[in-house]
Protein 1
Amino acid sequence: MRAAYGEASAEELAELKLRAASDPKIQAKLDRHLAVCGAMQSLKEVPVSQLSNERLREAVLRQGLKPEAKRSSIWSWAWMPTASFILVLMILPLSKGWMSSAEPQVVLKSDLNPAPVAKVEPIKRSALPAPPIRTNLVASKTAEKPVVAPVRTAERKAPKQDEAISNEMLYAMFVSAETPAPRTVVARPKPVVTPKVTKPPTEVATDAGEPIILVDRGPDPTTGTGGRATESKDTNAILVGG
Amino acid sequence: MLFSSAVSFLATFAGFAAMPSPQAKAGTETFVSLIQNGRTVGVAALISDKGKFIAHRSAFVGSEVDARIRAGTIIRLKVAGEDRVTRLICLDAGSALVGSWTSLLPPVDGGSVELQAVGPRGISNVQMVDDSRFGILGDNLRLVPLCEVRLEESEGALVNSLFVRGTEFRGVLVSSLSISDQPPAATFSALSQNFQAYGPGALQISFITGPKLVRRAMNAFLAGESVVRHPFLGIVCRNALAGGAEIVTVSKNSPGQKAGLRVGDVLVEIEGKAIRRQLDFARTMMEQEIGDRIRLVVNRAGRQVRIDAVVGGSTD
């Protein structure tokens, strides 16, 4: 186990290598694992504590037991108005941008007369080419992604179980062949999540996707395809019946 | 597997004669060529063992059309039904059909995205890329589901075509975007530019009828109805600034008028579903069936009013 976590002493590692030498497969796995361990430890971004449950637990306990820093009674609240002001300055321009893109824009081509075939602007879609489009119709997708009604999540997603046992699996990769005795896997303690009790939102008739709206302008005799001459409009300006 | 077999069968379609359906037994037929004034103008597909065909309204003019079956025999088809929204028509061969025939089935949701467009000019392979498009068709400004399809051919390949997936009839063309004809490449530079236009960037983009719409039309045709009726309240709505669908028109003697809906009412809920704009109303109406009793909630002069209405039917 200590070897798996890269904590084994030189003697322990030598003994493990000696035992693994009897089986080429185990030897190969051990070599590969040691190489991975070495590579992981060489990553400076990865805290050492992540390689060991014990170290992680110690780190948490150590930080949790630190005495809370005393703060000045004045500065404990003085930063709040400043932070609020900065936050408002940041949010205002962003919200203006969101509002302007809240409603989708569908390309409008209304000059069907006198020409029976509408010359339609190219569809604004990144996946499409921009060749000159001669069309009997039209339709264009909105330039911006529509705003989706926010739906609150009732409960946070719990961490995956397999993340907690990754070290065990790592160890079993090369040790299990030698130690067939069953092991008890202790999962990393999960953070306690208090489920939010929220009222389910009213079901909305629309879905999240913004439709491409083709507005029928009657048959188009010029193409002979049986298609309809169509135009597209801002979805806000469209009249719908039913 | 299914696709390849379908293509192999479809590839037998030649000379604009009738062709077997993709999974039909050898010798059976499903399609006929429509002929008017000595010219092949479209294709019709059998949808019933009783000799009913389905075709695109724009294929020919009038109430009758000649059809050529594989053996070269010409039979007369009469228009027996029409859907003014999808522009599908039902053609009746009466007792003129002889031989072994296999009919196409109504479309089902989901499944393969590979379709074939069967038209008087031949067969094109088509890829369905999105089945959640919408269009507003007909005099009643009806919002209908459409499917976006793409193919690597010009729109001419879709002239009066029928779209087929295996043994399913998927519908007809509603409209398409076409790429303008490019002049012949006279220089290597121009040739290379044209070459770069090939591939996904040069796909033809078209919209065909959605499966729900096609099923409704086919069911009406198979039931012997001469017209196809769609759910209808008889109102036209626009987007309300404060949210909801504001009624701007209420047709006389329509189900909406009989239920008490008025111009200026703002629909905010239908059958428990919030209506936040006019498109929500249109989509909700798409899901209704004729004869359904639905509960509407409208804002009228600052107060909410609950109204029960019975969904009627309209041909457009």
Note: Chain B touches chain A through 67 residues (CB under 8 Å).
Protein 2
Amino acid sequence: MTQKQIFSHTIAILVDNEAGVLARVIGLFSGRGYNIDSLAVAEVDGQSHLSRITIVTVGTPMVVEQIKAQLGRLVPVHRVVDLTVEAESVERELALIKVAGSGENRVEALRLSEAFRARVVDATPGSFVFELTGRKEKLDAFIDLMRPIGLQEVSRTGVVAISRGPEAL
Amino acid sequence: MSETMTGAQMVLKALAEHGVEHMFGYPGGAVLPIYDELFQQEQVRHILVRHEQGATHAAEGYARSTGKPGVVLVTSGPGATNAVTGLTDALMDSIPMVCITGQVPTHMIGNDAFQEADTVGITRPCTKHNYLVQSVDDLARIIHEAFHVATTGRPGPVVIDIPKDIQFATGEYVAKASVRHKTYHPKVKGDLEAINAAVDLIVNAKKPIFYTGGGMINSGPEACQLLRDFVKMTGFPITSTLMGLGAFPAADDQWLGMLGMHGTYEANMAMHDCDVMINIGARFDDRITGRLDAFSPNSKKIHVDIDPSSINKTVMVDVGIIGDCGHVLEDMIRVYKSRASQPDKAVLGAWWTQVNAWRGINCLSFQDDKTEIKPQYAVQRLYELTKGPNTYITTEVGQHQMWAAQFYRFEEPNRWMTSGGLGTMGYGIPAAVGVQVAHPEALVIDIAGEASALMTMQELSTAVQYRLPIKIFILNNEYMGMVRQWQELLHNGRYSSSYSEALPDFVKLAEAYGATGIRASDPAELDAAIIKMMETPGPVIFDCVVTKNENCYPMIPSGAAHNEMILGGDAGSVSVSDEGRVLV
């Protein structure tokens, strides 16, 4: 029953960076009842006004094919690539994580951050802000470890991804 | 050489460049500069409607009956929001439309200004594409793009929202020829490998059927001719969706009638039992498929569609071909002719024997009556007395629409205008206005219900103003008939709010508008009354008083499969599953 099984897909969409383009993409997902697990968007080519949207979505193979076809027919969309099936890809996410505490908890937070290769980007006598980059699972694991020792706030970028090898999107 | 002019002048110049002869609209504060330019030129004729929804449906009727885009001009705020129903209708039925909306001046956008609405926000999900013009230098390019997007690929409505200051501002006009779209290039030629795979299935088919749709009409009369050629060549039976009627002639022996919820028994049974289904320009809509997991369980399915997202959307197919119906048919015929083996005549003969046995059920038969006009009889007589290549039919939505589709027979494309996907009551009168504008000499009839007709009755005033002799043929059963039918079948006859209480006198109503009213309630006088309607020079409301409680059969109850149709005779034994009850 693979047609009924639900898979996670990372989809990269290259769009013209014009007013309302993000609303078109997001509106398509909400209007048709598709899921968005994560979303990242920024201009990637200022000269030709191209933005790249990376969406992590879940669905049955039929639904994911529908999502890609629906995205492809939006007028300002240049390309849609399913980085989960069409290519070997590298996925990364960045998080800023605020942890407050003192004494043993503070020492433990710093020790764990070194183990995860997180960077301290802000420190006060009672707090740290860590910057951590990696796969989603690594970020989840670190945040879970911080929870009992003073986790205050988390800000994450959402997943960005790119295919391995010399070919470009 | 570029030309300098105001934004409003650019609008008119661009419309002229795109060959626009008619537009439908309603003025207001935010489009006055464009109306001022309209006043000073003669190329584009403006038809003043009575409500912006009417403008959009008129544009749809115009587009559907000509193959040209329908053009709409409305003001900001309520002008734009009133257009939303027609835009959605055009999106669902793939009708090319360009709708220009006025907007408050750029510096006031977002301030809740008078008659401000977020038009691009509101219309984003109900258009193929939309634009908010932010600089007069973009305006001409955007209009050219809008026409290109609306009319190519899978056609659809495009909104251009133009703030009032941009209509006054001066800029450079860019000619149509110098614009090429950066990203939008729909594919029209089908993949040859897929076409070959399709022909493999076709030549080996034992129980084949063609299932065609609105995409055939959009592809144009030449494409419809190719379809006719191919169907003749193969000898296969053919059925069509509501939107595709007329692509293949109803008079032909291979024609099985419309399929779907109120389609013919033979069409639905053939769809269910076929071994090869050739879908050209239809989209496996839920009115067509019935219960999905029981839809044509043993067939190989070929699907030709210009919209990649239509393929494998609800029904998984074996061969998907992305391309324009006409182009694909051309290639398909060439490949088919080049094959050594053709479909086996004897095997096909057995299939036709089965199909003809289903035909023998005579599923459209109804109990005629000597004292009351049966709605089916009314459409039959209307068809017999008005048929011809110069007759155009529009409809509203409901029972009368299905009876029209069952009993009015179309031999040519572009003669049948109906709201299929959205099911918009109130479509028919304004659509008839649009058709008559495009075809001044034609006989244009809106087959209507009394409830639907009242939704946009004000457009009769438009018809009177422009001397458009549309005929509004109302099957008046004093009920929202399809709602009543469903309440009878699903809710034990509790007719909640479906009776048309306090109806106007339609004859007097017609006279109040300056049109002619005709009433018929006796089957014996029906023919004479229809002839009188045809001979009346101006617009007519024909109040055809019909049996009140007639149901529309055959019917696939919601949640049922094609081979579980209810015929008129088994009306007492209708049962709908719990799953079916929640469906629409």
Note: The mean pLDDT of chain B is 96.
Protein 3
Amino acid sequence: MALGAIRHHVVVEASADVVWDVVGNPARITEWFPGIVGCEVVGSTRTITTATGLTMPENILINDPVLRRFQYQITLATFAFHRGTLDVLALDDRRCIVVYSTEADPRAMAMMIGAGAAKALDNVKAMCKGATR
Amino acid sequence: MGRKILFVTTDQQRYDTLGCNGGILSRTPTIDALAARGYRYERAVPQSVVCMPSRSTLLTGQYPSTHGVWMNGVPLPADAPSVAVELQRAGYRTALIGKPHFEPFVDPFALFAENSFARAGTFGPHRGFEHFETATHGAIGPLHYAQWLAREHPEAVGMFYRVLDNDLEVNALGGGDTGAPQVHDNPIPREWYHTDWVADRTISWLDSLAADDDWFCWLSFPDPHHPWDPPVSEMHRVNWRDVPLPAGYPESAAEREVLLDRKPRHWRAWYDGTVVSNYEAPLSWVPATMTADQVREVNARNAVEIELIDEALGRVLRAVEQRGWGDDVDVIFTTDHGELQGDFGLLFKGPYHVDGLMRLPLIWAPARNSAPTAASVATPVGLLDVAPTFCTIAGIDVPSWMEGSPLPIDDSDASTRGFGRVLTEWDSELFGVTVSLRTITRDGWVCSTYLPGTMHDGSEGELYNIVDDPLQRVNRWDDPACAAVKSDLIADLWDHQPAPRAPRIIVQAPV
């Protein structure tokens, strides 16, 4: 079956460095991703717990502060494939755009994660608005 | 003390499945009796033919463009208006018991309030309902029925059909005697099945009220929506081998294909299994493979489920009588949308604005103390007219944000108050397939125009004369003899089209 894909983006009134401090730190996901209530990072493995009690192990594939790209893979058996990517792109010194994309098999999982991702970006926007570093 | 309101909905039920509407498979004496003493609407049209948008219309009295739930998986905003809020302000006790589906069921991050109550062991309040007790088509998910079954009868949880497959797609697995999709032999005892549970919980809530309370209760049965897995103990009611094929199902594949090829291309594409534009149609099921016997078996099981609903409603109405409220209760019965159920060789639903999905049962049996004169209303009405009707029954002004009008009580009333035009919308975006259409039902015509998308270039449409062609077999969109009426209908459609909500709410789950 073809992969399911979603992509959301948001423009944030803060520098790319400020936003990267939030989304590039894998342990901070509970601060901005709705419905994630627990998070443990050990090396390149992150394990998150959702508000429904579901535990999901993830491999961190890319955490590049120069490119400002964070990419991870959920390794739960439910997924035949998963890849989530966050890119933070500077628009100027005080604004950036954050893009969150997910590809998944089963394709329906991309839709489900996408709902959280869209709200997560709204939260990042609110958290970082006007912040400086 | 005012009039009480019992609002009864089913899920995905056709007009022609009730005895009072000419149905021959199900025995529906309770609903037929309501129709006999009240108003029976012969052309009630939904504003969307899928659950979430249509249920949001019932709650708000608004078009999908206005309330914003433009397809399944799009949640109704938390601050959306609600007729239940209006009734509560007027002093009504309020409850919704059964299937709500204003917000997605599939909710791994626990984002939606609708799914939170059963998890927390609470019962609302939500959207104006002081009591909010939920159920859906099976025994999984964060809803009260699933939790009750898991707690009280854990051995029954696995008895239902598995709605999603391992790929989280709607299951195409067949069952029963014919292998029809979404058909399953469910050994659950009838009294544990969700239809009876919803009635039981409704009676329990009514029993909690004081005799002089005014109340509004939305009794929302999850059936006869697929899967078709009623209790096996009840299957003796309708022998599928005796079920006649529906008038809308040509048994000849060649004839079906001719009919489908007269319609916009997504019809035939779905039939052939090349495009699925609605998540609730099983991705791996090809309609062209459906046999006549499978159509019979689906219709038989659907009929059994409707009989169980009729009997459950009968129990609720007897409880109402026993409380002494019998003369004071208005009962409105309807559904959210229809089911193709074999028409054109198709099952389930999708962007197909024909009678199977668009002509709905709607009955209003006013309180006996209002001395109504029974009538059949042929004029088209919409589901967005239901919420304003509740306001009228309760004696409160219809809020300005409602876009419908209180239901007419006969065709003369409908004519006087300008009924006759009903609009329906469809928008979907599903894994790279987009379909959008707008439909007007008026003057014996149903006219749909398609917007540009991945399946259509914007020039396509459907035009049916539902008087001369009640099965919508002949698409007259390109018939020069119909050019004037088509032009008039399309102009009328766009003149009355509500502005789309901006910004558009994103899809947040498959369903």
Note: The beta strands of chain A are 4-12, 36-42, 45-50, 55-64, 69-74, 81-90, 96-105.
